[in-house]
Structures are given as structure tokens and as C-alpha cells.
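Hi P.,

Sorry for the delay on this. The queue was packed all week, but I finally got your sequence through. Input first:
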Amino acid sequence: MKRMIVGAVSALLLCVSANAQVLPGPAMKNTLWTGFGNPFDGDTMYYGVTDVFQARYDAGKFTMEGMLSTGILANYQNGGDIDNFQIGTTNLNALALHYGRNSRYGDGEYSGGKAYSTPQGGCWNAVNSSNTLVDSYYVNFFYHINRNFDFGMGTKLNWSAGPSPRYGDWLWGADAHVRQGGFSTAYDDRSGSFARTSSDENTNTTYKFTPDRPGTADVVGFVHYASTYAKRAIGLRYVMSGDFDLEIGTAIPNGFNTDDPAVNFGVKVSPVDWISVGAALEGAFEDGANFYTGATIGAKNFILEVYLAVDSLFTSADDDQSYGTGAAVSFTIPRTSITLRPEIGLNLFENDDYTPAWYTGASLVLPISKEFQFSVYGSAAFGSKDERWDDSSETDDWDGGHVLTARPSVKYKFSKHMTIDAYVNLENRRAFDDKTRNAWSSGVYVTYIF
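Then the structure:
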């Protein structure tokens, strides 16, 4: 994006990834988190500690960067009591641990430190955990061939064609919150893969991100936005900057094979200072390909983002496609330093029996002083229902359910290198079958930039 858009976003204190890499420049960053919480009807549980270290190093035409996430996490296998602490690399984070490591309600059973439950409809108690997983590491290597061409290979290249619904910060970051209102889904945020080619469990097995259908999870409606066309991949892109900005890129995702090739494409155009338009195709030549398009329109202290996703584009099935569209506005309230970002989205399904799902949310940042600020994020999501339930004698007025979330937090800038963030995350979740599962969590982040 051009200077006006980038400058406006920075002024709004929004978290925007750099055009090329995960870290915006050479740096080392460490994010330490510790927290606790539980469903409201259970005893408070201590979750433990996670520590995420990131580093980027530039040398001439080469850029190298990496991240490693480690944890000292409480294990509650022993009847709900802390049995021991598990130490090692982890893909868990504050959002994934929001429901705890075990089930304290329903008919949960303990197995390997995870909770399993089979309430009516086959739903899981910790339904939202599946879309809050990230890789426990990333490693990226870039060769800047010349001023226009970049070659990259890595596990999280983060090449994006435009805006989409997001978690706020990275999932391990201090202002991470639920995405798309907290809808349940089979999709997670780890690096995509067309086919598993090794024993690496941190890859998806297909580009057909199948959304949960009504009745298989508490509140259904999450849609995958394929805006990031290079994640775990080998990629090449052309970038032209000036009065007319242009980015054209392609990536071979992890698991590409010559029998069933899957290639990603992305393009982004900024014809004038105040607009950027992009599109991406994920898994081209694969039946379950996903399409994305979006635009960012920026002016002083005002940014509008709009986006559209179409998943499972070329499959022969009549009812497996899903669609998502939405918009977000980021602006500073005139004559104040208060910033606001409301968002709304509508998710549709090709199956005529599934009703639309929709969500809305907003984040507010209120600086109190140069060192101290208050912020809050809140959202509401109303899930999809199966209209055939109305004609079934086995149901009892089932609907799509809802998720309500609130996340107030405070930030203190301790020094030019270190910030401390404390938050409380609250959730009211009423499932499609009228089961209510409420949870809370709280924690502290200490972020240090070297």
C-alpha cells in the first residue's frame, strides 16, 4: 500500500503486517504470557506460561527470520487437578487455552490432557479451540533478486493480497481476539498444505476448507478468507512501487505434487494513493480452490476495508460451497486520540437448507497518557441453522445459536523496549440446541523488543 494508507494505519495504532515479512524490519521480539480462567461453572485453572521469540536479520539482498513458541503448561489429566507441567514447543496460545485444558461441565472425559465430550448433536465443549491454533514456529528466507523481484521460501511467508477478518494481533500477541465473532469451524490458522508429505502434524491436508455444518458445532458460520496467498510455500513475486503500485505473486504450497498440482496466485494494485485492490486464488487446479478479493480505501485518519471470499470453488458437489463478505472501518474520532474499528460480516452457504450467519464487532483504543492506554474489543455472532430442524420431531426449536464476547485490556509502556498488557476475556456461547457454555480467562503479556 502507499504511504498514505500505511501512515493512516500506523496513526490508528492498528496491527498491520509488513508488505513482505512477518516482522517489519530487523529486530528481535519476545512475548511472554501467563494466564488463568475456566468455564464459569468450574474452579479457576492456571494455564501456565507461553513464550514466543521472533527475530529478523537482513544482510544485503537476503532476509532471514524465525519464530519459536515454547510453553510451560499445566496438565489437568488427574481428575481436574494439576498433575504436572508440560514443557516444550507448543502451538497453543491464550485464545486456545480460553476454555481450559479439560472439560469441567457436560460429560467430558480426560485423555492425553485434552477433553472430549459428546453432548446432544455431537458437539465439543471447547468448540472454539480448533480455529485458534498456530504453528509452534516459523522460518522464512528471502532473496531480493533486484528492486522488483522477491524470492521466498518458508513456513509463514505472509504474502497477502489484501484485508480480511482478523484476530487483531498475531494469535500470540497482546491484543489477539476471536475472529469473525468466534464462529466454530474445522479451519485453523496454521500454515496450509495441499497434501501431507511428511509426519508434520502442523499442516492441513487439503485446500478444501470445509466449514462446519449446522448441528456439528455449537455456533456455525466461520468462512475461510484466502487473502494470504503464500504461507508455508515457495514463492516468487514482482513488486513495482511509484505513482502506480503493483504486486503480482505466485506460490507453490507445501505438499505440491505433479499428479494433483496446487498453485496459489495473488495480485494487488494501487492506482492512486488512497486505494488498493487485490485478489487471490488458493489451490488453483484443485477442485477445492478458494477465491478472495478485497480493497482498502484510505484517507487521513480513515480506512475502509471490504472483502469477499468464495470457498470450494470448483467442486462437483451441489451444496458444499461457502461465501463470506464483510467490511471494517478504522478511524480516529475527530478532536480526540480515540480510535475505533467496527466490523461486520455476512456468511452464506450453497446448501439452501442452511440459513445465513452474521457477526459484528468493534475495537476501541483510548490513550490515557503517553505510557498508558485502555482498549476493549467486543463482538456478537449469530450462527447458521438447518431449516429442516423446523420440520423434525426430534428437535426442540433449534436455531443457530450465538456467541457474545467482550475483552477489555490495559497497556502500560514500561520503557521504550518493554510493554505490559493485562486483559480479561469473557464469552457467552449459546449453542444451536440451547445449551449454554460460558467461559472466562485473564492474563498478562510482557512484550520486549530488543
